[in-house]
Structure formats: structure tokens, C-alpha cells
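User: New here, please read:
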Amino acid sequence: MDFLLYISNFIVPFLLFYIIGYGLLCKVPVFQEFVKGAKDGFKVVIDIMPTIIGLMVAVGILRASTTLDLLGSILKPIT
């Protein structure tokens, strides 16, 4: 188990260096591609933000009204 923890500490930095190194070897503008991807990711977040907020509000309302507790007590014998 200690071996896996030791290896996992090096996997993320290795992947970052590998991706950057591979991009440099292929003569790809790595930073510009990173910025382009970050912009696209930000657009995705902006697109799904209303849905996430709506779901969080709905769950908050269900928790405040104890509906989830009632549903849990009904489903407890079944599950």
C-alpha cells in the first residue's frame, strides 16, 4: 500500500511534464493551447451553471422540508 501512495505522488507531475514535453517536441504552442482549452472549459461551466444552481436549490428545499427524511424512512425497509 505504501508503494501505491509513493507512486501516486509522482503520477500527476510526471503526466504534466510528459504532456508539456510531448507538445514541445511536436512544436505545438502549448501555452496557447492551454489558454484555448481553459476558455472552452469556462464556456462549458457558464452553460451548465443555471442547471447546477437549480439542482442545489431543489435539494436544499427538499432537505429543509424533511421530504428526503420521509422518503428515506419509507425506503429504509426496502433497501
Observations:
- The chain has three helices and no strands.
- The chain has a mean pLDDT of 92.
- The radius of gyration is 23 Å.
